[in-house]
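Narrative summary of target 7.
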Amino acid sequence: MFPFTPKHLDQARLYLREAAKLVAYRKDVVSEAILAEVHAEMEALKAAMTTREKGPVETQMQRLDDACRKLQPPLRDGSWRENVEVFVVAISIALGVRTYFVQPFTIPTGSMQPTLNGIISKATEEPAPSVLSRIVNWAVLGRNYFDITAERSETIQAIEEKHRFGISLGPFTYTLIKTDAGTYSASVPSAALSSDKRCTPGRKVNPGDVIARGYTDTGDHVLVDKFTYHFLRPTQGNVFVFNTAGIPTRENVYNPGAPSQFYIKRLAAIAEDHLKIDPPTLYRNGQPAPETPFQKVMAGTLKDPVNGYCGYSNGPERGSFPLLGNPKATFDVPAHCFFALGDNSYHSSDSRDWGPVPEANVVGRGLMVYWPFSKHWGAVR
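Modeled conformation, tokenized:
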């Protein structure tokens, strides 16, 4: 503060100045005794400063600091407040990141297989493994086991999926198997049990008979990059996520007014692209789509898959879609729209079914699979 002034004297002057400000701020709400104590310590510090000795000055600064603490309002539940503040800040940061940068998304269906997995279920003859193995398999593969045997002679009547707290996410979804004599519960979606032909309404079982046994693997959990598309245009070949607001998907047609869904597909074409599908080939502007992801899909056919890919189709195995529904049909993508296709072409409801995706519906680009730690873990391609 002053040239050649010892540091402890500069600090002492700062203590006095801040103490005077605090007294002026709090003098109307504290007792006269506390004010008198602070004033006394301030005078004592001034006296110590005249000696210019470091020890007495630092001792008196500490005494003044202790006296000034009595001017502060009492902090009740200080540690609790600090924890709440940390929690609120952490939540705020997480929400900000989710809103503007990346967002987690779960693959719900098999429309992008084998590139990305939806929920996959398999019936087995063997009982579930040990508890430790189940815990490891859940942590690594997202695998849940179901193993239900009949307790009495009874007949399966119905299978009903339920959601705890109204939340339709994996951990909150379970299925009730109702019989004419009771009810069994399995902590898996109803689709998992449909893979087991033993769990069929109308089937009669005896005590000890297996009603359902197997496992279900959770869909791939993907981080979606919501930031890049603010600067770069989506391009053909991207795996992208969009909401279905205003798109005549089956959910929107059968349940109008319900919240929009989030879909993940591959961006096959942009505005003004000219499309045709002659199985197994996707033609864009008169040429087979050149990007590597499309080449992988087109490498196989329904009768001769290559690495799980069966080529592009005009519709399901026994049917056709409204758009590109036969090898001669063509489609020109309108302005400000994208054409979305699933890699699992014979089992994907996509733009062939309900039309192009408006540009405003795009959420972001599929960035990486962060869980489970299967062969799909890592960057989405």
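The first strand starts at residue 102 and ends at 106.
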